[in-house]
Protein backbone atom coordinates (compact mmCIF):
# COMPACT_ATOMS: atom_id res chain seq x y z
CA UNK A 1 0.00 0.00 0.00
CA UNK A 2 2.80 2.43 0.91
CA UNK A 3 4.68 1.68 -2.31
CA UNK A 4 1.56 2.43 -4.34
CA UNK A 5 0.96 5.71 -2.51
CA UNK A 6 4.54 7.04 -2.82
CA UNK A 7 4.35 7.99 -6.55
CA UNK A 8 0.98 9.67 -5.99
CA UNK A 9 1.91 11.77 -2.96
CA UNK A 10 5.48 12.59 -4.05
CA UNK A 11 4.45 15.51 -6.25
CA UNK A 12 2.27 17.40 -3.71
CA UNK A 13 4.80 16.75 -0.94
CA UNK A 14 7.66 18.10 -3.07
CA UNK A 15 5.57 21.11 -4.09
CA UNK A 16 4.79 21.83 -0.43
CA UNK A 17 8.48 21.49 0.47
CA UNK A 18 9.41 23.93 -2.29
CA UNK A 19 6.88 26.51 -1.04
CA UNK A 20 8.22 26.17 2.53
CA UNK A 21 11.82 26.56 1.38
CA UNK A 22 10.96 29.62 -0.72
CA UNK A 23 9.25 31.17 2.30
CA UNK A 24 12.32 30.44 4.40
CA UNK A 25 14.56 31.93 1.73
CA UNK A 26 12.60 35.19 1.89
CA UNK A 27 13.24 35.40 5.63
CA UNK A 28 17.01 34.78 5.50
CA UNK A 29 19.23 37.86 5.48
CA UNK A 30 20.76 40.63 7.55
CA UNK A 31 17.65 42.84 7.33
CA UNK A 32 14.93 41.60 9.73
CA UNK A 33 11.50 41.14 8.15
CA UNK A 34 8.08 40.07 9.37
CA UNK A 35 4.99 38.45 7.88
CA UNK A 36 3.37 41.90 7.79
CA UNK A 37 6.32 43.20 5.77
CA UNK A 38 5.89 40.34 3.30
CA UNK A 39 2.17 41.04 2.95
CA UNK A 40 2.78 44.75 2.43
CA UNK A 41 5.56 44.07 -0.08
CA UNK A 42 3.12 41.96 -2.10
CA UNK A 43 -0.07 44.03 -1.88
CA UNK A 44 0.80 47.50 -0.52
CA UNK A 45 4.38 48.09 -1.59
CA UNK A 46 6.22 51.14 -0.29
CA UNK A 47 9.68 51.58 -1.76
CA UNK A 48 10.73 53.78 1.17
CA UNK A 49 10.34 50.83 3.55
CA UNK A 50 13.66 48.98 3.82
CA UNK A 51 12.15 45.58 4.76
CA UNK A 52 9.65 45.78 1.89
CA UNK A 53 12.34 46.86 -0.58
CA UNK A 54 14.63 44.00 0.49
CA UNK A 55 11.84 41.45 0.18
CA UNK A 56 10.52 42.58 -3.19
CA UNK A 57 13.64 43.74 -5.00
CA UNK A 58 16.38 41.51 -3.56
CA UNK A 59 15.17 38.33 -1.86
CA UNK A 60 12.15 37.50 -4.05
CA UNK A 61 13.98 37.66 -7.42
CA UNK A 62 16.89 35.70 -5.91
CA UNK A 63 14.55 32.99 -4.60
CA UNK A 64 12.63 32.74 -7.87
CA UNK A 65 15.84 32.61 -9.89
CA UNK A 66 17.21 29.81 -7.70
CA UNK A 67 14.01 27.84 -8.29
CA UNK A 68 14.08 28.44 -12.06
CA UNK A 69 17.75 27.50 -12.38
CA UNK A 70 17.34 24.37 -10.26
CA UNK A 71 14.24 23.21 -12.14
CA UNK A 72 15.91 23.87 -15.51
CA UNK A 73 19.14 22.02 -14.72
CA UNK A 74 17.34 19.09 -13.06
CA UNK A 75 14.94 18.66 -15.98
CA UNK A 76 17.70 18.84 -18.56
CA UNK A 77 19.66 16.24 -16.58
CA UNK A 78 16.66 13.91 -16.47
CA UNK A 79 16.11 14.24 -20.23
CA UNK A 80 19.79 13.57 -20.92
CA UNK A 81 19.85 10.50 -18.69
CA UNK A 82 16.72 9.11 -20.32
CA UNK A 83 17.82 9.71 -23.91
CA UNK A 84 21.41 8.49 -23.46
CA UNK A 85 20.48 5.70 -21.00
CA UNK A 86 23.36 6.96 -18.85
CA UNK A 87 22.60 7.69 -15.19
CA UNK A 88 25.79 9.77 -14.91
CA UNK A 89 24.72 12.23 -17.62
CA UNK A 90 24.08 15.85 -16.71
CA UNK A 91 24.79 19.41 -17.91
CA UNK A 92 28.00 19.61 -15.87
CA UNK A 93 29.43 16.26 -16.93
CA UNK A 94 28.28 16.27 -20.57
CA UNK A 95 30.12 19.46 -21.54
CA UNK A 96 27.15 21.85 -21.65
CA UNK A 97 28.17 23.93 -18.63
CA UNK A 98 31.82 24.04 -19.69
CA UNK A 99 30.92 24.95 -23.27
CA UNK A 100 28.51 27.67 -22.18
CA UNK A 101 31.05 29.25 -19.84
CA UNK A 102 33.78 29.08 -22.49
CA UNK A 103 31.62 30.88 -25.06
CA UNK A 104 30.71 33.51 -22.48
CA UNK A 105 34.44 34.13 -21.95
CA UNK A 106 34.99 34.49 -25.69
CA UNK A 107 32.08 36.91 -25.80
CA UNK A 108 33.61 38.99 -23.01
CA UNK A 109 36.90 39.12 -24.88
CA UNK A 110 35.27 40.24 -28.13
CA UNK A 111 32.46 42.33 -26.58
CA UNK A 112 33.57 43.66 -23.17
CA UNK A 113 30.16 45.25 -22.51
CA UNK A 114 28.18 42.09 -23.21
CA UNK A 115 24.82 42.11 -21.42
CA UNK A 116 22.48 39.35 -20.33
CA UNK A 117 20.55 39.34 -23.62
CA UNK A 118 23.75 38.66 -25.53
CA UNK A 119 25.06 36.32 -22.84
CA UNK A 120 22.09 34.00 -23.15
CA UNK A 121 22.71 33.46 -26.88
CA UNK A 122 26.40 32.85 -26.25
CA UNK A 123 25.46 30.37 -23.56
CA UNK A 124 23.16 28.48 -25.94
CA UNK A 125 25.87 28.34 -28.58
CA UNK A 126 28.52 27.17 -26.12
CA UNK A 127 26.26 24.53 -24.58
CA UNK A 128 25.48 23.15 -28.02
CA UNK A 129 29.13 23.10 -29.08
CA UNK A 130 30.18 21.46 -25.80
CA UNK A 131 27.58 18.71 -26.14
CA UNK A 132 28.49 18.20 -29.81
CA UNK A 133 32.15 17.86 -28.85
CA UNK A 134 31.32 15.23 -26.22
CA UNK A 135 29.19 13.21 -28.64
CA UNK A 136 31.90 13.44 -31.33
CA UNK A 137 34.64 12.23 -28.99
CA UNK A 138 32.49 9.34 -27.78
CA UNK A 139 31.41 8.40 -31.32
CA UNK A 140 34.96 8.41 -32.67
CA UNK A 141 36.36 6.34 -29.81
CA UNK A 142 37.12 2.68 -30.32
CA UNK A 143 33.97 0.66 -29.80
CA UNK A 144 31.57 3.52 -30.65
CA UNK A 145 29.25 5.54 -28.45
CA UNK A 146 28.19 3.78 -25.25
CA UNK A 147 26.91 5.26 -21.96
CA UNK A 148 30.28 4.72 -20.27
CA UNK A 149 32.28 6.23 -23.15
CA UNK A 150 29.84 9.14 -23.30
CA UNK A 151 30.41 9.85 -19.59
CA UNK A 152 34.20 9.59 -19.98
CA UNK A 153 34.17 11.84 -23.05
CA UNK A 154 32.02 14.33 -21.15
CA UNK A 155 34.43 14.40 -18.24
CA UNK A 156 37.43 14.90 -20.57
CA UNK A 157 35.79 17.66 -22.62
CA UNK A 158 34.49 19.44 -19.50
CA UNK A 159 37.94 19.41 -17.88
CA UNK A 160 39.56 20.62 -21.10
CA UNK A 161 37.08 23.46 -21.59
CA UNK A 162 37.43 24.42 -17.93
CA UNK A 163 41.21 24.51 -18.18
CA UNK A 164 41.10 26.68 -21.33
CA UNK A 165 38.57 29.01 -19.72
CA UNK A 166 40.65 29.48 -16.57
CA UNK A 167 43.83 29.88 -18.61
CA UNK A 168 42.33 32.62 -20.78
CA UNK A 169 40.83 34.28 -17.71
CA UNK A 170 44.27 34.49 -16.09
CA UNK A 171 46.05 35.53 -19.31
CA UNK A 172 43.64 38.39 -20.07
CA UNK A 173 43.14 39.33 -16.38
CA UNK A 174 39.38 38.84 -16.50
CA UNK A 175 39.06 37.54 -12.94
CA UNK A 176 36.39 39.99 -11.84
CA UNK A 177 34.37 39.77 -15.06
CA UNK A 178 34.41 35.95 -15.19
CA UNK A 179 34.04 35.23 -11.46
CA UNK A 180 30.25 35.34 -11.72
CA UNK A 181 30.11 32.80 -14.56
CA UNK A 182 32.97 30.48 -13.59
CA UNK A 183 31.97 29.93 -9.95
CA UNK A 184 28.21 29.98 -10.37
CA UNK A 185 25.92 32.02 -8.18
CA UNK A 186 22.83 34.15 -7.93
CA UNK A 187 23.99 36.91 -5.57
CA UNK A 188 22.98 40.48 -6.44
CA UNK A 189 20.40 39.39 -8.99
CA UNK A 190 17.42 41.51 -9.99
CA UNK A 191 14.17 41.10 -11.91
CA UNK A 192 15.76 41.35 -15.41
CA UNK A 193 17.74 38.14 -14.72
CA UNK A 194 14.53 36.40 -13.66
CA UNK A 195 12.79 37.44 -16.88
CA UNK A 196 15.83 36.38 -18.90
CA UNK A 197 15.82 32.94 -17.27
CA UNK A 198 12.09 32.47 -17.91
CA UNK A 199 12.35 33.11 -21.67
CA UNK A 200 14.12 29.79 -22.46
CA UNK A 201 12.89 27.92 -19.36
CA UNK A 202 9.18 28.00 -20.25
CA UNK A 203 9.46 26.51 -23.79
CA UNK A 204 12.22 24.16 -22.64
CA UNK A 205 10.07 22.81 -19.81
CA UNK A 206 7.02 22.54 -22.08
CA UNK A 207 9.06 20.54 -24.61
CA UNK A 208 10.34 18.25 -21.86
CA UNK A 209 6.79 17.54 -20.66
CA UNK A 210 5.56 16.87 -24.21
CA UNK A 211 8.50 14.54 -24.88
CA UNK A 212 8.27 12.67 -21.58
CA UNK A 213 6.29 9.66 -22.95
CA UNK A 214 8.75 9.31 -25.84
CA UNK A 215 11.76 9.60 -23.51
CA UNK A 216 10.30 6.78 -21.41
CA UNK A 217 10.26 4.53 -24.50
CA UNK A 218 13.71 5.67 -25.59
CA UNK A 219 15.13 4.91 -22.14
CA UNK A 220 14.19 1.25 -22.74
CA UNK A 221 16.51 1.13 -25.74
CA UNK A 222 16.52 2.50 -29.28
CA UNK A 223 15.55 -0.86 -30.80
CA UNK A 224 12.57 -1.19 -28.46
CA UNK A 225 11.43 2.38 -29.16
CA UNK A 226 11.87 1.95 -32.91
CA UNK A 227 10.00 -1.36 -32.83
CA UNK A 228 7.06 0.42 -31.20
CA UNK A 229 6.95 2.94 -34.03
CA UNK A 230 8.79 5.82 -32.43
CA UNK A 231 10.77 8.22 -34.60
CA UNK A 232 13.90 8.11 -32.47
CA UNK A 233 15.84 10.73 -34.42
CA UNK A 234 12.99 13.20 -34.09
CA UNK A 235 12.70 12.53 -30.35
CA UNK A 236 16.46 12.94 -29.87
CA UNK A 237 16.38 16.23 -31.79
CA UNK A 238 13.51 17.56 -29.68
CA UNK A 239 15.19 16.40 -26.48
CA UNK A 240 18.45 18.09 -27.48
CA UNK A 241 16.61 21.35 -28.17
CA UNK A 242 14.88 21.15 -24.77
CA UNK A 243 18.19 20.48 -23.01
CA UNK A 244 19.91 23.38 -24.77
CA UNK A 245 17.10 25.81 -23.89
CA UNK A 246 17.04 24.78 -20.23
CA UNK A 247 20.80 24.55 -19.72
CA UNK A 248 21.77 27.56 -21.82
CA UNK A 249 19.34 29.85 -20.00
CA UNK A 250 20.41 28.62 -16.57
CA UNK A 251 24.12 29.08 -17.33
CA UNK A 252 23.55 32.56 -18.78
CA UNK A 253 21.97 33.89 -15.58
CA UNK A 254 23.67 31.80 -12.87
CA UNK A 255 26.85 30.32 -14.27
CA UNK A 256 27.75 26.61 -13.90
CA UNK A 257 25.71 25.45 -10.89
CA UNK A 258 27.16 21.97 -10.73
CA UNK A 259 25.67 18.50 -10.24
CA UNK A 260 22.01 19.53 -9.77
CA UNK A 261 21.21 17.86 -13.08
CA UNK A 262 22.98 14.65 -12.06
CA UNK A 263 21.65 14.23 -8.52
CA UNK A 264 18.00 15.18 -8.80
CA UNK A 265 16.86 12.66 -11.46
CA UNK A 266 18.12 9.82 -9.23
CA UNK A 267 16.07 11.17 -6.34
CA UNK A 268 12.97 11.44 -8.53
CA UNK A 269 13.33 7.92 -9.97
CA UNK A 270 13.65 6.45 -6.48
CA UNK A 271 10.14 7.76 -5.72
CA UNK A 272 8.19 7.41 -8.98
CA UNK A 273 10.05 4.77 -10.99
CA UNK A 274 11.10 5.03 -14.64
CA UNK A 275 8.05 6.71 -16.19
CA UNK A 276 9.22 10.14 -17.39
CA UNK A 277 5.65 11.46 -17.35
CA UNK A 278 6.02 11.32 -13.57
CA UNK A 279 9.77 11.99 -13.42
CA UNK A 280 9.77 15.34 -15.27
CA UNK A 281 7.28 17.19 -13.01
CA UNK A 282 8.82 15.74 -9.84
CA UNK A 283 12.41 16.38 -10.91
CA UNK A 284 11.59 20.02 -11.75
CA UNK A 285 10.15 20.59 -8.28
CA UNK A 286 12.98 18.66 -6.61
CA UNK A 287 15.64 20.58 -8.53
CA UNK A 288 14.04 23.88 -7.58
CA UNK A 289 13.79 22.82 -3.92
CA UNK A 290 17.40 21.57 -3.85
CA UNK A 291 18.78 24.78 -5.35
CA UNK A 292 16.71 27.03 -3.08
CA UNK A 293 17.85 25.01 -0.05
CA UNK A 294 21.48 25.18 -1.22
CA UNK A 295 21.16 28.95 -1.68
CA UNK A 296 19.79 29.32 1.85
CA UNK A 297 22.68 27.27 3.23
CA UNK A 298 25.27 29.11 1.14
CA UNK A 299 24.36 32.45 2.76
CA UNK A 300 23.68 31.11 6.25
CA UNK A 301 26.49 28.68 7.16
CA UNK A 302 29.20 31.32 7.58
CA UNK A 303 28.00 34.44 9.34
CA UNK A 304 28.73 37.59 7.40
CA UNK A 305 30.00 35.68 4.34
CA UNK A 306 28.43 33.87 1.43
CA UNK A 307 29.58 30.67 -0.26
CA UNK A 308 28.99 30.84 -4.04
CA UNK A 309 26.07 28.62 -4.95
CA UNK A 310 28.05 26.75 -7.62
CA UNK A 311 30.77 25.79 -5.15
CA UNK A 312 28.20 24.64 -2.60
CA UNK A 313 26.27 22.42 -5.02
CA UNK A 314 29.54 21.03 -6.39
CA UNK A 315 30.64 19.98 -2.90
CA UNK A 316 27.32 18.19 -2.37
CA UNK A 317 27.34 16.74 -5.87
CA UNK A 318 30.88 15.41 -5.67
CA UNK A 319 29.94 13.40 -2.57
CA UNK A 320 26.80 12.10 -4.31
CA UNK A 321 28.80 11.25 -7.44
CA UNK A 322 31.33 9.18 -5.45
CA UNK A 323 28.52 7.38 -3.60
CA UNK A 324 26.78 6.61 -6.90
CA UNK A 325 29.99 5.31 -8.46
CA UNK A 326 30.61 3.06 -5.45
CA UNK A 327 27.05 1.76 -5.63
CA UNK A 328 27.44 0.93 -9.31
CA UNK A 329 30.79 -0.72 -8.63
CA UNK A 330 29.45 -2.87 -5.79
CA UNK A 331 26.44 -3.85 -7.93
CA UNK A 332 28.70 -5.07 -10.72
CA UNK A 333 30.89 -6.87 -8.24
CA UNK A 334 27.85 -8.67 -6.86
CA UNK A 335 26.83 -9.75 -10.35
CA UNK A 336 30.19 -11.42 -10.86
TrEMBL record:
Family: Belongs to the binding-protein-dependent transport system permease family. FecCD subfamily.
Membrane topology: Multi-pass membrane protein
Gene Ontology annotations of biological process type: siderophore-iron import into cell
Keyword annotations of the record: Cell membrane, Membrane, Transmembrane, Transmembrane helix, Transport
Transmembrane segments: 60-80, 92-112, 118-140, 152-174, 194-221, 233-259, 279-297, 309-326
GO molecular function terms listed in the Swiss-Prot or TrEMBL record: transmembrane transporter activity
Entry superkingdom: Bacteria
Chief location of this protein within or outside the cell: membrane
Cellular localisation: Cell membrane
A Pfam family annotated for this UniProt entry: FecCD
Stored SUPFAM superfamilies: ABC transporter involved in vitamin B12 uptake, BtuC
One CC-aspect GO term: plasma membrane
Name of this protein: Ferrichrome ABC transporter permease
Amino acid sequence: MIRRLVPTVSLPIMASLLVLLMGLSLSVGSTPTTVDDAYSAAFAYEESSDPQFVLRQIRLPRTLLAAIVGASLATSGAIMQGVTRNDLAGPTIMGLSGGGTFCLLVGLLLLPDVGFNQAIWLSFLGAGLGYLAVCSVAFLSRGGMTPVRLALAGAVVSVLLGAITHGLTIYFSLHDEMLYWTVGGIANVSWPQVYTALIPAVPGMAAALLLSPSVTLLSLGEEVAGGLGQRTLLVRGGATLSVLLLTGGAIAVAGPVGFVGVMTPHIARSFVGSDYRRIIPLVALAGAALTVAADIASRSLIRGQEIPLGLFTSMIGATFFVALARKRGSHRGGQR
